[in-house]
Amino acid sequence: MEQIYFFIIAIVAVVSAVLVVSCKSPINNAVALMMTFVCLANFYVMLHAPFMAAVQIMVYAGAILMLIVFVIMLLNLNTVLIQKTSHSVVGAITLAGLVFFQLYYMLGHSSTTSIKGDISNELVMEVGHTQLLAKSLFVEFLLPFEIASILLLVAVIGAVVLSKRNAAAQE
After folding, report:
1. Are 29 and 75 in contact (CB under 8 A)?
2. 1-111 classified as CATH 3.40.1350.10
3. Residue 126 Cα distances to 119, 129, 131, 135, angstroms
4. Is the confidence at residue 62, as pLDDT, over 90?
5. pTM value?
6. Which of 1, 19, 119, 151 suits a disulfide with 32, CB 3.0-4.6 Å?
7. Mean local confidence (pLDDT), 14-37
8. Is residue 47 pLDDT above 60, yes or no?
């Protein structure tokens, strides 16, 4: 059952990732990106990393995605409104219901895997997820973490500069 759930989430993740790069409307791209982030959070839950799943939802699907939507709105990209069709709404509701049912079933009936690593269950229970993650993030991977934050800052500044330039050219 766990493999079926993994394959369903993997297919949804791949389809939504393809939609991120293939949709014509930037808002639709952002919605597809949110679905990709939610699928990644499901993968973290399957890997027994609940803190990472919560961070994925709060930081990426929440804050970063809202920042992207804000920049899209700030750039005032002309988007064409497309009428909703009833079969797409029914399909989306059916798919969401299936994913939620699978998630509910997996959380209730799953067991731990036999994969062994450097961090044992005893160490996680003794120290905690958050401390182990923080040590890894701010000691071992500090430079990539800071580079990612600088890149996000530069992207926001670039979007503001481009929008101001376009606003000045239109006046």
Report:
1. no
2. no
3. 11, 9, 10, 15
4. no
5. 0.53
6. 19
7. 88
8. yes
Domain boundaries defined on the chain? 1-111, 120-171
DSSP the chain: -HHHHHHHHHHHHHHHHHHHHH-SSHHHHHHHHHHHHHHHHHHHHHTT-HHHHHHIIIIIIIIIHHHHHHHHHHHT---------HHHHHHHHHHHHHHHHHHHHHHHH--------SS-HHHHHHH-HHHHHHHIIIIISHHHHHHHHHHHHHHHHHHHHHHHHHHHHH-
159, burial (CB in 10 Å: exposed 0-12, middle 13-18, buried 19+): middle
In the numeric block, which tokens belong to residue 4? 């079926």
Using CA atoms, how far apart are residues 48 and 70, in angstroms rounded to an integer? 33
The set of residues, in sequence order, having a beta carbon less than 8 Å from that of 61 and lying 6+ positions away, is: 34, 37, 38, 41
Query: For residue 12, how many other CB atoms are within 10 A of its CB?
Result: 19
